[in-house]
Design a protein that fits this description.
Two copies of one chain form a homodimer. The first copy, chain A, is of the alpha/beta class. The first copy, chain A, contains 14 helices and 17 strands. In chain A, α14 links the parallel β12 and β13. At the A-B interface, α1, β2, α10, α13 and α14 of A face α1, β2, α10, α13 and α14 of B.
Chain lengths: 458, 458
């Protein structure tokens, strides 16, 4: 009996998800046509609601935390999750500041990126517009909800939010604040929806006729699962295997400083470096300088080296080096471990990166402009850095205000995805009754194809 | 024995395809770094070879045609294919002119679309770059090969060409002209490859670690098959279900003229209109004017109408109207057939289009600017036209020089895809040893995030 009832509950829950998606799709078309000021007003209202309901939010979060702590004690939940789950006054204030920053950004919609007269009275424009309905699947962090929702509403997109079940109570209050803010500003509240069951993920991934983009925010496993199980375009990355190449003409002191930052400043981040490639001309002095710096600052990095690097190192070297295995070149450690390989040339470094990398972010340390130019042209990753830490690959640091994720795909949007990455474009053609038949045959009219400088006419 | 031998041949052929793809991937990284002038020189060389080898090309094409004619007689090939397969002097001249036009276009690479100082000495740039390696799967038209290859080389992309088997001999000569032109200009010739077997398609679709984009050019069935059988992004469209909405405030004469153009000027094209939506206030006068125009010009369009439109039509109406079925709203006729529906409001028309459309191109006929603005904002298609025929949705007519296809996806590239659609971007970060650790904690440096006007510094 219990199974039947569960099945029925699941079926009913899935039906509710489908209905939410259908309503979301319809509402997103309405949302797309609303002016910037109205979308911003909804965000400002939401921020006010979040501030006014601080105690309710914190109470809900304490409920989630109490439940999670119980599960941690029972051993069914990892302790590290508690920190991510917690939403206190200070974090809530950051959330509200973040929403305000989003309102202050320029409208990403209705930007004209191409204006061309095709013929007298016939004009072509390329105009930015929302993508449509976005499904965001995220894990325990409840502060992800307001960040994602404000980016989506600002860019005129509907959003279906699938939050982590651990943050269920907190997410509900946060979500209510946005719905209330939208209602007050006259936005269609169905343009956002919160779905909660694990089964909802499958329903969302199957809804390729209604959902235009899926954004997974979570573990590599979650992202890989989603990429393998939907026909909807997926924005994100399963892996961040970032490289740093220390060129023949590198400033060794700089290379050591950047390597330590890129590996240790926050090793769990996707933009941390995983593989160090050393030009054979600098491999030994670099390793010696790295060892000295790690010792003097009392830091430790586990170094997995290829045979060639091992062979370069003299006896009595102060660090323990372990041999790297083939799989290390494609491993994202997420901790203070670095694989190290010595290469003959810049070209070998590029080949290694394009073979083993995940197209996220790669850096070269060199004083040779030509080496950087070659590296930049030939490495096909979303970020290619010169004399800077890979850790800068981030929407906030790029000045995008916030990001919904980092895309390692080859097509747009690529890299950290902020408001500009959440819009696409339509071609607008304005005629006065123009027909194609006039442009074919022996007496065909010719297209003028003159770019229009003054956009105001459109 | 024959089966074993065939299997072995297939295995060897597939192995050859994989090798071509691997070489193509490596060569495309080299190609990406070559200057515009060198890429253009290869195209000019190829055009010269095509001109010089005209008789060889036409002879090869005659061989293909003879074989195809045999198959048409045997009933294993459709007669209409012969016209598409034929490549005569005049068509070859058009091909050569097309390549020259591509060389005359601006370099789509290395364009800087964002320049920002992040902090003193630390700068961010967004720079256009090739997508990487593109697989193009096309059917009988041999003139597709030079068009696609020149767009790909101009945009720095490698390309694996899978041509139709009917055009095998012609394709080989055309391909050789490009290889020779590339060789002479110092381009890596492996950046283009021609594969011929039907089995190669599956090998290409499985190569998601090497191929960055698949472009199918052919029947709806081919495109649907490819979309369903690869994890590589697919650029294109399976269906072109375009709509025309005749608004309450439409100029009826203009609406009739555009409808006839959009339906009959070239009914097999994807940008031809399939469904006509009529505001109830103009439905009857529009239908009367359409009937009069079709009669006076001796043209015929088969009209499949919803009940409401049928009910509006008085006795003695000069055209035969047939009842539309539900599936007609999502059918691409490809011939002089049009489904017709009467709606109450602009809003109903938009809901119909967003429900049944294929996000290709839709037009509204109206003298009401506000109605167009609402239509433009709410219809989520790659092209949204005002008082112009949907048949203008085309790379050449948009002034893109040529196109590899029309994308009905929601993300970039969208609509007719020319050179700009064949590039993506990378973020370039240039520092002087900048590390993230300096930007966190109590004494964190602040980012300046000042947009840079002078791009020359990069």
């Amino acid at each position: 009996m219990s199974t039947t009832s569960d099945t029925m509950d699941t079926a009913a829950a899935n039906e509710a998800v489908i209905r939410a998606v259908e309503k979301g799709k319809a509402a997103s078309a309405t949302l797309a046509a609303l002016p910037h000021e109205q979308r911003n007003r909804a965000l400002r209202n939401a921020a006010e609601h979040l501030a006014a309901r601080e105690s309710a939010i914190i109470e809900a979060n304490e409920g989630d935390l109490a439940q999670a702590e119980k599960q941690v004690k029972e051993g069914t939940l990892n302790h590290s999750l508690l920190h991510r789950l917690k939403l206190n006054s200070s974090k809530l204030r950051d959330v509200i500041v973040g929403i305000t920053q989003v309102t202050e950004q320029q409208d990403p919609l209705s930007r004209v990126t191409l204006s061309r007269e095709l013929d007298e009275g016939l004009a072509l424009y390329r105009v930015s517009c929302p993508i449509g309905l976005i499904a965001v699947i995220f894990e325990s962090r409840p502060d992800a909800l307001p960040q994602i929702t404000s980016l989506c509403l600002k860019s005129g997109n509907g959003v279906i939010l699938k939050g982590g079940s651990e943050a269920r109570l907190t997410n509900r209050v946060l979500f209510d604040c946005f719905r209330a803010g939208m209602h007050k500003a006259g936005l269609p509240t169905d343009a956002i929806a919160l779905v909660e069951t694990r089964e909802a993920i499958k329903v969302l991934l199957d809804a390729d006729q209604l959902i235009d983009l899926v954004v997974p925010r979570g573990s590599n496993q979650l992202v890989s699962y989603i990429q393998a199980n939907t026909r909807i375009p997926v924005l994100g990355h399963a892996e961040g295997i970032c490289h740093m190449y220390v060129d023949r003409k590198a400033d060794i002191v700089m290379a050591v400083k950047i390597t330590i930052d890129a590996k240790t400043q926050y090793p769990a981040a996707c933009n941390s470096v995983e593989t160090l490639l050393l030009h054979e001309g600098v491999a030994l002095p670099f390793m010696q300088a790295l060892a000295a710096e790690l010792q003097s600052t009392n830091q430790a990095i586990r170094l997995l080296c290829d045979k060639r690097t091992m062979a370069l190192i003299p006896e009595g070297f102060p660090l323990i080096l372990e041999p790297a295995k083939e799989e290390d070149w494609s491993t994202e450690y997420g901790e203070e471990t670095l694989s190290v390989k010595t290469v003959d040339t810049l070209s070998d470094a590029i080949v290694h990166i394009n073979k083993y990398g995940s197209h996220h972010t790669e850096a070269i340390i060199t004083s040779d402009r030509g080496a950087f130019d070659t590296f930049f042209a030939q490495v096909n990753s979303a970020g290619v850095f010169w004399n800077a830490s890979t850790r800068f690959a981030d929407g906030f640091r790029y000045g995008f205000g916030a990001e919904v994720g980092i895309s390692t795909g080859k097509l747009h949007p690529r890299g950290p995805v902020g408001l500009e990455g959440l819009v696409t474009y339509k071609y607008k053609v304005v005629g006065k009754g123009h027909i194609v038949a006039d442009y074919v045959g022996d007496e065909a009219r010719k297209f003028t194809h003159v770019d229009i400088e003054d956009h105001s006419a459109q």
